[in-house]
Write a structure and sequence with these properties.
The protein is an alpha+beta fold. It has one domain (2-93): Alpha-Beta Plaits (2-Layer Sandwich), CATH 3.30.70. It has helices at 11-19, 23-34, 62-73, 85-93; strands at residues 2-8, 38-44, 47-55, 76-81. The chain has a four-stranded antiparallel beta sheet, covered by helices on one side. The longest helix has 12 residues, at 23-34.
Length: 97
């Protein structure tokens, strides 16, 4: 199922990783594992943030999705199941109204 992953990195943690050159390797490894459909990066509340659209196989996938961001970036992570317009129409059709 498709999910929207919102990540906001801890500034102090991210600053250290950027300063020592480790941020790119860690980030590339996590993105390589997630294989996102899309990823967007921006500042939110003065902090480094991103929104990533991913495929989630099942509920048991949540630890492997969230933990790398918590462990590597001390990040705030929110995940939301979402759908595109075609999936919305299919869901509305199931209402039978």
């Amino acid at each position: 199922m498709r999910a929207l992953l919102e990540v906001t990195m801890d500034t102090e943690t991210a600053n250290k990783l950027i300063a020592d050159g480790a941020v790119a390797e860690k980030f590339d490894r996590i993105m390589g594992e997630l294989k996102p459909e899309a990823a967007y990066f921006f500042a939110r509340g003065g902090r480094r943030s991103q929104i990533v659209v991913i495929d989630v196989a099942d509920e048991a996938s949540l630890p492997s999705i969230c933990e790398p961001f918590w462990l590597e970036f001390n990040a705030e992570v929110d995940i939301h199941i979402c759908m595109n317009a075609e999936e919305l129409h299919a869901g509305l059709d199931r209402l039978g109204r």
